[in-house]
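Field log, afternoon session.

UNIT: design team B
ACTIVITY: writing a sequence onto a fixed backbone
BACKBONE:
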């Protein structure tokens, strides 16, 4: 059964539309859907390569190598995205963006919609913390328990790479 799933996954990955390949992957993402409800996007232009050893998936791109435990992964998809929002000007997009303020031992997030999920992931895909913004679109994450290193801060559909220095 496992070999059938792995073979199907490989067939699907090999069936990437020729228009994606011809465009160099521009505008397309390889998306990892985690059982936690989080998605992690990798641009096709970063040349993602996925391997599976029966227990874990290893995804290698030109930017990083990430390991996902089999039990944590729901599915993989290939999705087209638009990097430009024609409906909004750049200044409108910046004004609508979440704001992150680092302070000793915590991050304060403002400017979000109410009830937006805010998550901190380790670079290996592990969820380290999650909170939901309040009615004013604000949240506070306590970072004192995190080790020094690189983390991904996910605010709704926005992801930010951050370096935590203690």
């Amino acid at each position: 059964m496992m070999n059938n799933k792995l073979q199907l996954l490989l067939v699907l990955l090999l069936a990437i539309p020729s228009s994606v390949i011809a465009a160099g992957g521009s505008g397309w993402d390889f998306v990892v859907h985690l059982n936690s409800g989080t998605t992690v996007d990798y641009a096709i232009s970063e040349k993602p390569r996925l391997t599976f050893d029966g227990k874990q998936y290893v995804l290698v791109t030109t930017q990083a190598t990430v390991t996902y435990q089999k039990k944590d992964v729901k599915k993989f998809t290939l999705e087209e995205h638009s990097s430009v929002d024609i409906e909004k000007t750049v200044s409108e997009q910046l004004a609508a963006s979440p704001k992150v303020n680092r302070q000793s031992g915590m991050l304060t997030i403002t400017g979000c919609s109410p009830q937006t999920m805010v998550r901190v992931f380790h670079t290996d895909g592990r969820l380290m913390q999650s909170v939901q913004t309040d009615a004013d679109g604000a949240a506070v994450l306590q970072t004192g328990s995190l080790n020094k290193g690189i983390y991904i801060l996910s605010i709704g559909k926005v992801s930010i790479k951050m370096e935590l220095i203690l």
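LOG NOTE: The longest strand covers residues 73-80.
NEXT ACTIVITY: expression trials, pending approval
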